[in-house]
Write a structure and sequence with these properties.
The complex is a heterodimer of chains A (about 450) and B (about 550). Chain A is α/β, with parallel strands linked by helices and about 450 residues long. Chain A contains 14 helices and 12 strands. In chain B, strands 1-2 form a two-stranded antiparallel sheet. In chain B, strands 3-4 form a two-stranded antiparallel ribbon. Classes of the chains: A alpha/beta (about 450), B mainly alpha (about 550). Chains A and B meet through α6, β7, α8 and α9 of A and α13, α21, α24, α25 and α26 of B.
């Protein structure tokens, strides 16, 4: 383990010129360079950005079924519905929240897909349990997996293919490692809450102190917690210089990102991509979607209340990110996939809000997306205890990404039996991602 | 007594998993079914006392550790858990802080999130009964309220002084009779958080039922979980769900209909936000909002016209609820709340890998619920924790250094152990603690922080190590402090082993391995470089680097 860590570190240390230029004294472990075997999986250059909408996004007010009379019925959402005509029309049947004009533009250009009715059997209404399902790729009735689905995907696809760069994946905009990325056999992705403060400080005797910290965190151990700590420290050592390099990239659209977890996360992801690092999977998140109260202010639902603010920020940040990707020739190799732990109740509650629901809408953005609406329309006439029923299993959406975007195998990630019975039958109608065949291999660009 | 603990999934199963499978963590499986919570009867040396201190009191100074050791196990535990409701020496210390300095004014009179974070950190560092602070942290993590929601709920009009006192004018207008105060809104939000915190300090150790009763009338909580807008016309379920899922019983012990019925029962528990009364944000029972139709929870139908009686009935039903659920076999025998809370105590104080089906959970729940001896009562928190800290299970060697320090503990333990003070809690320390992943009074979700391995991530490691660096500079560790703290414990400037072991004994309450000591020796050698003699300046550099390095050791991240 420590061998891999050291190689991992040293490899990135060599590429991280900032170490040599910023420091007067080079720590001696940088000099102990040994070429590591580069990772030989997921080599197409395609990038996935997972975007979590935490708290349970109200899908019905995000993508409005503008031809559905039940949505506009006075008993359904008397105060918080988007008034007819205020939504931005997408395809005739669906309109998007008026605060999401940026995303609407990308939809019109064919770079956004709407995935309706995504969920799972026996929906759970607990934020935490339901988030666990979405993060691990488990469903009720089965033992909750002990790894996130991304970690399983990585292990299944990349084990035996060499050592990953420390920045092979990254959680940006927050210090918390998402469960989706946790539990891999031999790789812990770094979390970077703030690029500017992501460096190890030393008052004096910098090289001596950094050497000692490194050695202290590479002693042989049989304690799994100590090993985990050591690995985390090594990941830090291996990625700080690269993050400093990435952070020097300019903002192409000043003011285009909000100063919060989502804005900071997408901004840094953009910089890492533009700086040329081989990060394949990012995870960013936006909180605050648990809109039990003050979701929208009656009479001003499109301009006041929490939901319009959240969706406006979502649209702004995604729009800026996609524009930066487009301007730098990266648009065709990025795919943003949104998810939230559940949708919300069809009918509003008494607090100008909505309670926890079930099936929900997801988005996919980027040049690798087949634009359009997938998964059929939400069926408000046939609710399950007041909530939308799902018709698409979320694991099928993940599988479409794994297979069509990354050209890898989804069955081992979710289990062959699940794949055969649930996922495979749904994949045919989930062609929202362009396949390997019809997206240029980024490695051959230019 | 022999106990074998097996981990069914191997060590990997615990890595990075905290929220996942809340009730499916078969982390440990008791093989020998003897009473785990029998009193500990093994040797009582500084080794066991140190374990107790690391888990309950943010570590210890040598004097404190010696006192715990000399007292013997039982008296040592008593001295920790029998704290007074008010920490008088601490409060007096704060009163005596000089006025007129920005830093201390913020601690004395906090009016923002940063202020109140510093306010609490200062208290953790200087408390004379640190277990009270540690347990308040547990309760804050359990009964979550988030600053962001509280502050955003308090009206910005408060700053303008628009109190609606001028007849015919509303509260929202351009001027009021109160002077404008840019800090009034923040001060109201701080007061809400502090009042909730005070519930934890004063009621936390007593009857769990009293705590639940107080929390269901706490304005901060009623705002946070939206119960102030839970009306009979359209009840909403936020508080009803979390009071069961997170505050008492855990998932799997109720159904969705119970959530709806409890939501109806809780209608009317509200908050008075009237501008005419200068925004009291105080508890208010809104009788007109209360649903007066019968409610049926767990098959029991009730309905009272007495204000708040339906809420109290809900709490009684929750605490008595034996669910027969599949969460664990013990749920057919013990109330779900006794098991869930015992599991939370055990995972916070003993080992995060303990599953709710564990034998220790069952034993602790049995005591928590059934021990009513000597005038006691059901759900007596203090007596339950006393039992736990005196149990053989608590001192099992496999639990040593098996919990991850949270960010507050990372900072507070070091400052307390070295009897050092940071000059800026509200302006600086709180920032580091935030960057480590913990914004006090603002947990990330209603489930609190995820704890365990999730505290350790790249950004968090950077912040931890950088705070260690700050402590090693003269900002915190002055030359004078080096002289007075350390010089008496070493034999001259070349006593490298003395310097290294000094910090291990203070911060880890443990000794260094040979391999660890070698790394310190190499560090000191590198610092001395080609110098022929160790000057005082070199010696101080060694001391500072040693403090920095100790706080980056894997073992210092653990407790």
């Amino acid at each position: 383990m420590s061998n891999m860590n050291r190689r991992q570190f040293l490899k990135v240390g060599l590429s991280g010129l900032a170490y040599f230029t910023l420091e007067q004294t080079t720590p001696k472990w940088v000099m102990r360079a040994a070429r590591a075997l580069p990772l030989s999986c997921l080599t197409s250059g395609r990038i996935l950005v997972i975007l979590q909408q935490s708290g349970g996004n109200d899908g019905l007010n995000t993508v409005i079924p503008r031809q559905d009379d039940i949505y506009y019925d006075a008993l359904t959402r008397p105060t918080i519905h988007i008034p007819k005509g205020m939504e931005i029309n997408l395809d005739g049947l669906n309109g998007i929240h008026p605060s999401m004009s940026g995303i609407a533009d990308w939809y019109q250009q064919g770079n956004a897909a709407v995935l309706h009715n995504v969920g799972y059997v026996n929906p759970d209404f607990s934020h935490f349990t339901s988030t666990d399902y979405w993060e691990t790729g488990g469903v009720p009735g089965q033992l909750m997996p002990q790894q996130g689905w991304i970690a399983r995907f990585y292990d299944n696809t990349c084990n035996g293919h060499g050592d990953p760069e420390a920045l092979f994946m990254a959680r940006t905009g927050s210090s918390e490692l998402p469960d989706m990325m946790a539990g891999s056999q031999n790789y812990v992705p770094p979390t970077i809450s703030s690029a500017a403060s992501y460096s190890l400080q030393t008052g004096e005797d910098r090289a001596a102190r950094l050497n000692a910290i490194h050695d202290m965190n590479n002693l042989p151990t049989i304690d799994s917690d100590v090993e985990f700590l050591q690995r985390s420290v090594n990941t830090v050592e291996a990625s700080t210089a690269d993050i400093a390099t990435a952070n020097a990239e300019p903002d192409l659209y000043p003011g285009g990102y909000t100063a919060d977890s989502l804005g900071n996360g997408l901004k840094l992801a953009s910089k890492i991509i533009r700086a040329g690092f081989d990060t394949r999977i990012f995870y960013v998140s936006q909180g605050g979607y648990d809109t039990h109260a003050n979701q929208a202010i009656s009479g001003n639902v499109t301009t006041q209340g929490d939901h319009q603010r959240l969706l406006g920020n979502l649209s702004l940040n995604v729009d800026t990110f996609l524009k930066e990707m487009r301007d730098t020739g990266n648009l065709d190799r990025v795919l943003i996939l949104t998810f939230s732990e559940f949708g919300r109740r069809i009918n509003e509650n008494g607090s100008s809000g909505t309670d926890h629901g079930a099936a929900n809408v997801m988005f996919a953005f980027g040049g690798g997306v087949n634009g359009g609406v997938f998964g059929g329309q939400p069926d408000l006439a046939n609710p399950l205890r007041g909530n939308l029923r799902h018709s698409v299993d979320f694991r099928s959406v993940y599988s479409a990404v794994i297979e069509n975007w990354f050209g890898a195998q989804a069955a081992p990630v979710f289990g062959q039996a699940n794949y055969d019975s649930v996922i495979a039958p749904e994949l045919a109608r989930l062609q929202f991602v362009k396949t390997n065949a019809n997206v240029k291999d980024w490695a051959n660009y230019g | 007594m022999t106990l074998t603990l097996l981990n069914r999934f191997g060590i990997r199963s615990l890595v990075g998993k905290t929220r996942i499978s809340r009730h499916r963590r078969y982390g440990f499986m008791a093989i020998i079914a003897m009473a785990l919570l029998d009193p500990y009867t093994g040797p009582w040396t500084s080794d066991q006392a140190a374990h107790l201190a690391r888990r309950t009191t943010f570590g210890a100074t040598p004097v404190q550790l010696a006192a715990l050791t000399a007292a013997g196990m039982s008296a040592a535990v008593d001295s920790i858990v029998d704290y007074a409701p008010v920490d008088l020496p601490l409060e007096n210390r704060i009163v005596d802080l000089p006025s007129g300095t920005t830093e201390y004014d913020r601690i004395k009179n906090p009016v923002s999130d940063r202020d109140v974070e510093g306010w609490w950190l200062y208290r953790m560092v200087h408390s004379t009964q640190p277990f009270q602070q540690q347990f308040a942290l547990f309760l804050h993590d359990h009964f979550v309220s988030e600053w962001d929601k509280i502050f955003s709920t308090v009206t910005p009009e408060a700053n303008n002084g628009n109190d609606g006192s001028i007849p015919g004018q509303s509260c929202i207008r351009t001027s009021g009779s109160l002077p404008a105060d840019p800090n009034r809104r923040g001060a109201i939000a701080v007061r809400l958080m502090r009042d909730q915190h005070n519930i934890f300090l004063t009621l936390g150790h007593g009857a769990f039922k009293s705590l639940l009763v107080a929390i269901t009338r706490d304005p901060c909580m009623l705002i946070y979980l939206d119960n102030r807008t839970n009306f009979k016309t359209r009840p909403q379920e936020n508080f009803a769900r979390e009071i069961m899922e997170l505050f008492s019983m855990g998932v799997g012990n109720y159904n969705e209909q119970d959530v709806k019925e409890i939501a109806r029962a809780l209608t009317g528990e509200s908050v008075n936000t009237s501008c005419l009364l200068n925004w009291p944000y105080s508890y208010f029972y809104a009788a007109s909002s209360h649903d007066t139709n019968p409610k049926t929870v767990f098959g029991v139908t009730f309905n009272s016209s007495v204000p708040g009686e339906d809420t109290n009935k809900v709490i009684d039903l929750i605490l008595q609820r034996v669910s027969n659920s599949t969460v664990s076999p013990n749920h057919a025998v013990y109330p779900a709340a006794s098991l869930y809370m015992s599991w939370k105590f055990l995972t916070w104080f003993v080992n995060q890998g303990i599953a709710i089906s564990d034998e220790a959970v069952k034993e602790l729940a049995d005591f928590f619920y059934n021990n009513t001896s000597a005038g006691g009562y059901r759900y007596n928190v203090r007596e339950t924790l006393r039992l736990l800290f005196k149990s053989s299970f608590f001192y099992e060697s496999q639990h040593r250094f098996k919990l991850f320090k949270n960010p507050a503990e990372y900072v507070v333990t070091a400052l307390r152990a070295l009897e050092l003070d940071d000059p800026s809690y509200a302006g600086n320390v709180n920032n580091w603690v935030r960057e480590m992943g913990m914004k006090l009074f603002d947990p990330p979700t209603v489930d609190g922080w995820a704890h365990g391995h999730t505290w350790i991530n790249a950004s968090g490691v950077v912040a931890r190590f950088n705070y260690a660096n700050r402590m090693s500079t003269s900002v915190v560790l002055s030359d004078t402090a080096i002289d007075s703290l350390i010089e008496q414990h070493i034999h001259g400037y070349d006593d490298d082993a003395g310097i290294a072991s000094f910090f291990a004994s203070r911060l880890l309450l443990d000794s260094l391995t040979f391999e660890e000591a070698d790394i310190f020796m190499q560090l000191f050698k590198d610092i001395k470089g080609s110098a022929t003699t160790t000057t005082q300046s070199i010696y101080r550099k060694k001391v500072r680097a040693a403090l920095h390095l100790t706080m980056t050791m894997p073992r210092y991240q653990l407790k």
